[in-house]
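Our collaborator T.R. sent over the components below with a one-line note: 'Predict the complex.' Nothing else. No constraints on interfaces, no templates requested, no preferences about which chain binds where. So this is a plain run: every listed entity goes in together, and whatever single assembly comes back becomes the starting point for the next discussion.
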Amino acid sequence: MNNRAVQVNRLPEPGPLAADTFTIVEQPLPPLNDGDLLMRVIYLSIDAGSRGQLDDRGDYVIKTAPGQVMSGSGAVGQVLESRHPRWKAGDYLATTVSRWSSVVRLKGDTPLLTRIDPKVAPLEAYLGILGMVGFTAWVGMTNIARASAKDCVLVSAAAGATGSAAGQFAKASGARVIGIAGGSAKCQWVEQELGFDQCIDYKSEDIAAAIAKHCPTGIDVYYDNVGGTIQQAAFDAMNTHGRLVLCGMVGQYSGEGEAPGPNLMAAIIKRLTLTGFLANDHIALFPEFQAIALDLYQQGKLKHQATVTKGIENIHEAINSLTSGKNTGKQLCQIGEVD
Amino acid sequence: MNNRAVQVNRLPEPGPLAADTFTIVEQPLPPLNDGDLLMRVIYLSIDAGSRGQLDDRGDYVIKTAPGQVMSGSGAVGQVLESRHPRWKAGDYLATTVSRWSSVVRLKGDTPLLTRIDPKVAPLEAYLGILGMVGFTAWVGMTNIARASAKDCVLVSAAAGATGSAAGQFAKASGARVIGIAGGSAKCQWVEQELGFDQCIDYKSEDIAAAIAKHCPTGIDVYYDNVGGTIQQAAFDAMNTHGRLVLCGMVGQYSGEGEAPGPNLMAAIIKRLTLTGFLANDHIALFPEFQAIALDLYQQGKLKHQATVTKGIENIHEAINSLTSGKNTGKQLCQIGEVD
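Returned assembly:
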């Protein structure tokens, strides 16, 4: 059995990734030392940062140069072979870091390496609402914005992985929750499956008017995944003492440059707090999150959905699906069989 | 003795106020009821909000319509007559609200009506670093930004009332403090009199280069009084986990419209917190502030300076002095004699 790895072939221009961005290279399996395990990867997490790794900007993610193998924020898979007492062949597990290859070697005591049970939730969910993406949503909505039953919460990219999770955690806290998503199919899913109170279709509605209609008393919490004009519309509708949680600006990850942001005078007038965060800074809370999220999931209060691109050779399409907003819920790339 | 009051004559166009913006009207003295006092006003506080009261924007300040008498954020004066046991004729006092007239009637138990001692500090200081302006600086720097000896702090409008106070409170906390002000005279005053570590002259220096030179490890706290291009330069130089305190954007108060703000992607990458605040929301802390500030003042750790425009009939010039940045330290209008 050989190992197939996703190597960067050339750095891309702005816009969608071409098929020759990556080369799939065959490598020997890594040797297994005491304390290690080999995992065959079933799903890889595809994140906004995956595109960012190929751009020359900021310090948001580690850069990956041509000739290097990509890495990402998570994978689920199954133990092939173990030399660590905690793990045995056949165990399912999730990791919050992963090299992009069909087999990865992990230390058995890697922090946040988690045993998962496909009978409790589908494997995909452990990379979505029960994984780092759910954790990111929970940290922003619960710890930073402190959303409560008193609040009207607005979430952009509400059909995306983080947004769909963020809105559900806000609903679980009792808030009124309005989503923004692109297209009626996504909006219907957000309202009917996820239980948001309303979802605004930015492709067919006037965003400012729709916000005014659905949040007539204003927005207390805005969970921003997109930046740009939607951010500006939300900013304009914030209530006094509102909280803006800045989680992502997916429209900006394709290397197409930066538009200006909102004039911050309103932040004084309305005494707003804007907080940018990265979930990794809060990683000590991950076990607390996992217990809470699994409990809510089993109560039926959290739903999971993934958009799965199949085949390691199509992984550039998985990234394009995310950056172009084609995904509903968590974007994954499936590179191994589910038993 | 008649009472002279500042009545709005007409709402201004954008830009400096013309002499006919206000009319000085003669009014009878208000009757003195039990529990009241009459104060002859010596100094009136002139604030950014004074200009804002005449503009049709936001809810930052109460609007004042033509025919109405202006009010402001503070005055110091002397008791003319009292029917409240706490006060007697001749007492000096400071109030955090005031009608703009030569004599005002106050309830003797008005919250934050403070007995002041011209032997401890000049009367002007009680409207500056020992008054609401000092309080605003202290709330932002101490309670919101939590500036400490570990921080490099940048303060814009460092020769202005709030900025000069904010930087001094940061110095008192042990931080390294860099100011930004306009012109070498102001910068010299900020460095030599106020004890800032450096002051950047935005009129003759490249702001970004000067920030990089004086804060080589980046900015931890930015206390923003101006918005605009200086805000952008500060934003670009912020450290990871930096705090931006948004206190004022004096360049925007003349009704000349809003420029865009910084793109907030950097707030995610650098995990910044931006907090807009108004000191009035924190007014319960005012007595605590007064004790701390008076103590620091008596230790020589706080300096006061005011720019005083003389004469109630010149009060539009006092506002213009502030909005055009001509003032050093707190802008006041003197409308009564100091004994």
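Summary for T.R.: The two ends of chain A are 17 Å apart (CA to CA).
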